[in-house]
Amino acid sequence: MASSQQAQSPPLEPSALTRLIASASGNPLAATTIQILHNLQHQHLWTSLEIHDISETSIASDAPPTLISGIPPHRVYTHPDEQLYMLEKGIAEDDLRPERLFVIPTAQGQSWSLRRMAAAFDSLAILELSESEEALSSGESVDPEKAQKLDEYYERKANARETKEWGTRRALLAMTNRGMGGEGTVVYYVVQEGEVKPRQN
Amino acid sequence: MESTPTLPIPISYVSGRYLLFSIDAVTYLRREHNICGVLIGTLPQIPQQNVFLGLPLELMPEEARVLVDKDVACIVDEARAHDGMRSLLEEDRRQYLRDLESQGQLATRMLSDRKDQQREQSLKEIDEKKAKGLAAKAAKAAADAQAAASSTSAPTEKEEPNSVFAGEDESSSLSRTTGTSTPAHHQAMGVTPTTSYPPLPHPVSPSAQYLPKPEVPLSYPLFAHLHSRGYFLSPGLRFGCQYVAYPGDPLRFHSHFVVVSAEWDQEMNLMDIVNGGRLGTGVKKGFLLGGPQKRRDEVESEADRIETVRTFSIEWAGM
């Protein structure tokens, strides 16, 4: 009885996420990108999210075709030496201007290799060149002492970027669960180029 | 002791293992070339006592290869190097045994000298202390003479620890006059040499034949790359990886990375990155994934692959 009643009822409406993902142009990788962007936006509350098409700039044909970038509400990664400097100078993380972070979207079961990882980082370098110095506008300095401290910090940071003292080029590697029903978990790993000493968690 | 052994250091190749038997070579390589190896020697009769191991030191093929590539070491076929043992002259053999015995006597003498020195040192200290105590006591006695008789209990208490040493002092001062003049008839220590030269000639000589460079796994370029950056690398079984990388001597530093190598186009499961990242973060390390950009068949020698290594450090983002 019950089953026949169910059969008569209209099919369930697809969820908002399913509809969003289905809007991707049939390309499974594009769907992954959209799903991870959705997760960043609504679960982790990232802002100013953008999708970058890197299929033209990257040399390797099988590299991920897109990267995502956005501004996280809190810092995702602080290098241990940078953290030490901030502690010494009494700089809180909330005082710093938000930073744009790049995300490499992948899905579980997708084939991956060092070549692909390197291709993603190479195109990241090109993107960062064009994106650098985008937000120098957060100049609502309340207290001149703090403003000077922050200026020193930014100078130090620019210096550390050259010497790679405070870590190297970094991105988040996002992996979404696809097989086994695909319940939509996304995990994030910080990837940096070269040997960067671990954080002291 | 900052001794430098004669270079190149002979690495003994025994049934597929690369071994070092000379403690000078072991300490030198650790100090100057960031090579730790693994001690594998037990007492021959109680091999189950294996918490503290001694010589020989076993090297990974990668470690042996790095040393050979840097011309610091060479690989010697242990069996062939000992062919000369049978043709050793009886006279040489006896001479060698005499040498060993005199070495043992020397060691005994050094030990007893050191003991004497220590004893004299401590006697001197006691004498000084006693002199000081006497002076203090004399001063106190002068002061006490004016004081009442009720204070007599204090000096006797004070004298007690002194008298304990005084007894010992008398007996030892006796031995001081008699003991040192006559040489002690100790039994010479038994010396067990860890290397076989002498009596055999040093295995590194212009005429000697060395084995070819050690065969290394595909992960060698990453090993050599990290080693050239000053990392100490040890086998990775403990952390489920290929190598554990320490930023300095493992006795002084915690390790920074669990290292896994891959070929440039080697398909890898993303789940392996999750596993490595989680494991590394769980033990306060980074997960280091890397490899050379060239395949073995693309280059002439392994050295060309080392320059093309690229690495990535991975940590859990915590979100």
Summary of the model, kept short:
The complex is a heterodimer of chains A (201) and B (319). Chain A is 38% helix and 18% strand.
How many angstroms separate the termini of chain B? 51 Å
The ordered string of helix (H) and strand (E) elements of chain B is EEHEEHEHHHHEEEEHEHE
Biggest sheet, spatial arrangement of strands of chain A: 1-2-3-5-6
Distance between the termini of chain A: 58 Å
Order of helices and strands of chain A: HHHEEHEEHHEE
**Fraction of residues of chain B in helices?**
40-55%
CATH class of the largest domain in chain B: Alpha Beta
* Tally of discrete structural domains of chain B: 3
Tell me the structural class of chain A. alpha+beta
Percent of residues in beta strands of chain A: 15-25%
Q: Strands of the biggest beta sheet of chain B: in what spatial order?
A: 3-4-2-1-5
* Strand count of chain B: 11
Architecture of the largest domain in chain B in CATH? 3-Layer(aba) Sandwich
Mean pLDDT across residues of chain B: 82
CATH class of the domain at 26-77 and 99-132 and 169-192 in chain A: Alpha Beta
Which characteristics define this entry?
heterodimer, A: 201 residues, alpha+beta, Trna Endonuclease, Chain: A, domain 1, B: 319 residues, MutS, DNA mismatch repair protein, domain I, 3 domains, five-stranded mixed β-sheet, 8 helices, 11 strands
Description:
The complex is a heterodimer of chains A (201) and B (319). Chain A is an alpha+beta fold and 201 residues long. Chain A has a domain of 110 residues: 3-Layer(aba) Sandwich (Trna Endonuclease, Chain: A, domain 1). Helices cover 38% and strands 18% of the residues of chain A. Chain B is α+β, with helices and mostly antiparallel strands and 319 residues long. In chain B, strands 3-4-2-1-5 form a five-stranded mixed sheet. In chain B, strands 6-7-8-10-11 form a five-stranded mixed sheet, with helices on both faces. Chain B is built from eight helices and eleven strands. Chain B folds into three domains: 104 residues, 3-Layer(aba) Sandwich (MutS, DNA mismatch repair protein, domain I), CATH 3.40.1170.20; 89 residues, no CATH class; 103 residues, 3-Layer(aba) Sandwich (Trna Endonuclease, Chain: A, domain 1).
